[in-house]
Prior knowledge:
- By secondary structure, the chain is an alpha+beta fold.
- It has a single domain, classed as Maltose phosphorylase, domain 3.
- The protein contains 2 helices and 8 strands; from the N terminus they run H-H-E-E-E-E-E-E-E-E.
- It has helices at residues 12-15, 18-30; strands at residues 33-36, 39-42, 52-59, 62-69, 81-84, 87-88, 94-95, 102-108.
- A 5-stranded mixed beta sheet has the order 3-4-8-5-6, with no helix packed on it.
- A hairpin with a 2-residue loop joins strand 5 (81-84) and strand 6.
- The longest helix has 13 residues, at 18-30.
- The protein is globular and about 60 Å long.
- The relative contact order is 0.19.
Amino acid sequence: MVVQTYFGRGGWTWYTGSSSWFYKAGIEYILGLRIEEGMLTIKPCIPKEWKEYKIRYQYGTSIYNITVKNPNESDANEVKEFFVDGEKIEEKRIKLIDNGRIYEVEIII
Length: 109
């Protein structure tokens, strides 16, 4: 007779801290979304086959619709251009504002 002492515990990792690390790895290290000192930056590490991805980020009452485009299927994953509501941002990061607005962020890598 085989005793399965761990039968049914496959979901255990989702009740512990490993789900937090999985989420952090996906959002921060792959998609590149980082919030540091109230500033939003994107530093992706995506496969070159990904042409585009989108993130909807809520900060207080504000919404940031973020589109990251990889038109040249680049391996570098370096942010070349950063736009907010059509305006080019040279600093390639923005201060988050809680004002109830919806912001359109476009990033070209």
